[in-house]
Amino acid sequence: MAKSPDEKHRPVTQNGPYCTYHGGVRNPASIDWIVIHDAEGASAKGIASYCASGNAQASWHFACDNDNLIRCLADDVIAWHAYSPANQIGLAIELAGYASWSKLTWFRHQATLKRAAWQVARWAVKYNIPARILTKRQLKAQLAGITFHVDITKGLGVGSHTDPGPNFPRGYFMFLVRRRIKWIKAGK
């Protein structure tokens, strides 16, 4: 039997450690956004341990790097990853990386991009979230889609975060997400 496409980057590799701070349980029907972050850190295990330590009054659903995709909160738990309404209606994934990275450096982390794309695609299919990057107007209208922390900062005028940085390969990442959505829907 043939292997499924990109099988290497597909599985969730670990559950926990779980984030200490969060906003409690929500109705999964309220989930409309997927928010992409960079963690300003080098490893998913370090990112997950940080949110579990109690030192970070922040949280996210997954931490991702070249080798790991770690669940840090259940989807139905409100993560503290951005300001309102992103926390209440969003799912958050933290990518090991830095907002200061060049586009070339991001491309050198293909495994991180592909692992994250699988998770975003699974969420998009599960919660019927369109694979589109939300515009400022769509963010304000709270339409369903995919966004980046910097876009919440700029589009909603809250906070000061700039992640995942100006050189994050958005178009390529969305190509990866859309491709994986097709594979999921085709049963591959």
Indicate the percent of residues in helices: 25-40%
N to C succession of SSEs = EEHEEHEHHHEHH
Q: What CATH architecture label applies?
A: 3-Layer(aba) Sandwich
CATH topology: Lysozyme-like
Shape: globular
Instruction: Write out the CATH superfamily name.
Output: Peptidoglycan recognition protein-like
> What is the CATH class name?
Alpha Beta
Largest sheet: 6 strands, mixed
Q: So how many helices?
A: 7
Span of the ends, CA to CA: 12 Å
Strand order of the largest sheet: 1-4-3-5-2-6
What does this protein structure show overall?
This protein has 188 residues and is of the alpha/beta class. The chain has a single domain, classed as Lysozyme-like, CATH 3.40.80. The chain is 35% helix and 13% strand. The chain has 7 helices and 6 strands. The chain has helices at residues 44-53, 86-89, 103-107, 110-126, 136-140, 149-156, 170-185; strands at residues 14-15, 33-38, 62-64, 69-71, 90-95, 145-148. It has a 6-stranded mixed sheet. α4 (110-126) crosses α7. The N and C termini lie close together (12 Å).
Features:
alpha/beta; Lysozyme-like; six-stranded mixed sheet; 13% strand; 188 residues; 7 helices; single chain
Q: Short description, anyone?
A:
This protein has helices at residues 44-53, 86-89, 103-107, 110-126, 136-140, 149-156, 170-185; strands spanning 14-15, 33-38, 62-64, 69-71, 90-95, 145-148. It is of the alpha/beta class and 188 residues long. It has one domain (15-185): Peptidoglycan recognition protein-like (Lysozyme-like, 3-Layer(aba) Sandwich), CATH 3.40.80.10.
